[in-house]
Amino acid sequence: MIRVLPHEKDASLPQGQGLRIGRMELATRLLLSPIAGYCDLPFRLTIRPLGGLALASTDLVNPRGLMRRTWKSMQLVETDPDDQPLCIQLYGPHADELAEAARWCQDHGACIIDINMGCPVDKVCKKDAGSALLRDPAGAARLAERVVRAVDVPVTVKMRLGWDETSIVAPALAADLERAGVAAITVHGRTAAQKFSGSVCLDGIARVVEAVRSIPVIGNGDIRRPEDAKAMMDRTGCAGVMIGREALRDPWIFRDTHAFLTTGRVPPAPTVEERLTLMTRHFEHLLRIRGERLACSTMRQRVSWYATRLPPCKRFKERMRMLSSSAEFYVNMHTLAMELLGRDGRRHAEEGQGTQRRGGQ
User: Which residue, among 311, 317, 361, has the nearest Cα to 341 in the 3D structure?
Assistant: First the structure.
């Protein structure tokens, strides 16, 4: 649920409760990272009902593609009434293009606009976008201010500590972004040069928290367990945590982390049957939204992530990597359920096939 609140200086709520970004109050302090190629509409619809997730974001979107209404861009920003609250992340070096795209996003369901200043991938940085913006902090702040002035919804920025260890600009840039009107900042605790190597620098995130006056800083990087999120918040003072790759392995990470932050206890782990049901739900969202061919190709990509939280299932993974039809998917799921759950697996498989029949009516 989203409630619009009058502006207040204190941007955060007591630890373990919600998070304010601008005039928006989020139900928890946990956000889904915009992982390129993974955080599409079917995945967001799959994990939201599990609980604990306050805000989900799209993959990073090129404003030029969005303004041309290219197939890829429109697929990235596709949403649904059940896909709220939604952040749309934009990337690029041109302020006017970002502002125009931000207005379009605001008019088409975005509750928050995020500017990507953190992606270290070469094809993004070669366009002077993503982490490359950190090489010109003053220009990055002006770009953000232009977007802030173009829309009424909160504008946020996701960035890294700096381009490399010799140019740690995040604290000073965060202060400039706050003055430019940015409503929140997410900091991945590595430099662009590190990409995903090494460990996050919690002290670096803490220095960003110290640099701003009132807006929330959200920490990001290396969150694999609820305890990691609490440790990051305790050590850095950040107001919330953004979780990325662990959500692909274990989408219950948001539920578990929110419970841990608010009660000090982690709920019982999902059963094997619950995990198989989630995989089926994800596939059926894909089937409905993307069609059979893309549903199968996506599930071929995702099976290794899901399988990390299942008992050993080498043959299942091998079969799924050859997946070419929805019929094969249900056969594979039935076989796995029987292998892992025995007689209970029969019930799971029948429920999945019933959902398939209902979806085809």
Answer: 311
